Amino acid sequence: MQSGGMTFAEKLLARAAGLERAVPGQIVVVRPDHLLTHDNTAAIIGKIPDELDRWGIVDPDFPIIVLDHVAPAASEKTAANHKAIRAFVERFGIRHFHDVGSGICHQVVVDQGLAVPGSIIVGSDSHTCTYGALGVFATGIDRTEAAALLLTGETWFKVPRTIRVVLDGALRPGVTAKDLVLHLAGRIGASGATYMALEFHGPGVATLDVDQRLTVSNMGVEMGAKIAVFPVDAVSRPWLEARGVPVEGALWADEDAAWARTVEVDLAAVEPVVALPHQVDNVRPVREQAGLSVDQVLIGSCTNGRLSDLAAAAEVLRGKQVHPGVRLLVLPASREVLTQALEAGVIQDLVAAGATLLPPGCGPCLGAHQGVLAPGERCVSTSNRNFRGRMGTRDSEIVLASPVTAARAALHGFIAPEETGEEAG
Amino acid sequence: MKVWRYGDDVNTDMLFPGKYTYTCSTPDEILPHLLEDLDPDFAGQVKPGDVILAGDNFGCGSSREQPVVGLKAAGVAAVIGRSFARIFFRAAINQGLVLVEAPEAVDAWRPGDEVRLDLDASRVLVGDRSFPIPPIPPEILAIREAGGLLAYARARLEKER
Prior knowledge:
The complex is a heterodimer. Chain A is 31% helix and 17% strand. By secondary structure, chain A is α/β, with parallel strands linked by helices. Chain A folds into two domains: 8-266, Aconitase, domain 3 (2-Layer Sandwich), CATH 3.30.499; 274-416, Aconitase, domain 3. Chain A is globular, with a radius of gyration of 21 Å. Chain B is of the alpha/beta class. Chain B has helices spanning 12-15, 27-30, 42-45, 66-73, 86-95, 103-108, 138-146, 149-160; strands at 3-5, 51-54, 78-81, 99-101, 115-118, 123-126, 129-132. In chain B, the strands form two sheets. Chain B has a four-stranded parallel beta sheet with strand order 1-2-3-4. A three-stranded antiparallel beta sheet of chain B has the order 5-6-7. The longest helix of chain B has 12 residues, at 149-160. In chain B, 48% of the residues are buried.
């Protein structure tokens, strides 16, 4: 057994399993602090009706349930699912329930102060890794595992190996955290971190605010990572404390931990990029894609639907009009974000420019409703996946981009690097 | 037995499109759409005992378990891949679907080769060649032997409460 220091994942899983230490490959049994589920709660509880009658759920404070994926309901079936979930919440006195309109589950968890540093949150949604931004061991699981967890509160993890990502310098103006994480996906690849943890280190970490870190951690799974985690530091600690979130449990990797690999990133060298269809790691500079036409632009989602993202888009579009050939959809990540964006005048600017405001939720990101694409159409989206068929038809294209790049595309009707905008401005 | 060979980075949207995730949950609802955007022939032609050979990172993307539930219900004997995305890997354990990571076996396969899995001997046979596969940790084997995670959890609760 190794004797040096431990990574974040090794240290946290050892503590959670009541062990001295944990090493990669080891299986540990833990009791997560919370289980997150969303509209798929209906399918989850549908697997265990007899067990729920007999044993109930492990703890009414354990589940966090947010209705966001098809919200408001788009059909009789999704409406019936929502109704069944509300009845389940009522029956077991589940405290952390957030109904239609609250927002995307990942943002609601953060808004509600449930992303507690050093805790373990599992969710039946792959982007549960988002709260790694706040030092949470947070990862996605499937519906069956969620069903078992409701009953037992317990699950197993294989201790992951860890990639250390060292950030140096600072992003240039106009370059966003989305550009950073797409740049990383391009370098590490869609499977480059499979089964592994991503840890963010280096002086560049302190230059990223909490919104930016949430964007980066959100896309950890797009590289295959189990978790994508930042330290709790002088940037995030006051942010957490202001929300009354306890930070005493925070922990971080040892200086002499054994990382599987180190990836160094000079933040100043990151440029605006897009991920072209149909792979998240198909990353190209925006300047090489100038002129690529677009039918729809989606600004928002759990990746880029926070106030700073919407404000960056409003900065581009304020006082101007969306190109007549483009449908601009704006999808705030939560009601709290929407409220902030209304107070800041950001929503007013976007709507005045011709945007359609969608209710806080997952919207068209997974192709269920509210802006699915027609065959032959192309969408520039600030979300996290451009897989074939993701937004409703296999014959459409999704280009992933930052809110700035997306807003510029909405304005011009095509992908436009900064210079184009100034000329057209 | 048919061998279905697919490439790298096959994601969950190709295996089971997101637009169905909140309307299809049972095997009967899932089967007609299984692998719909990857291989439109699959759902109509797959037979019990068939094997899927996959490249790297099979099942990446969403935490969607419908593809696993569907493959299990279709009677797919095993998915043998170069590597698997982790949520898909867990989902397979939880459903009792046999996943085997055997990159050399995948690379060795040529059209027409038979593929046979010999779990007792921890090996895959491709044509007349044999490839070792990693042993399964006891914690995971216990879940598979119980018939999947829910059966495992049920048995534990019976005992403890």
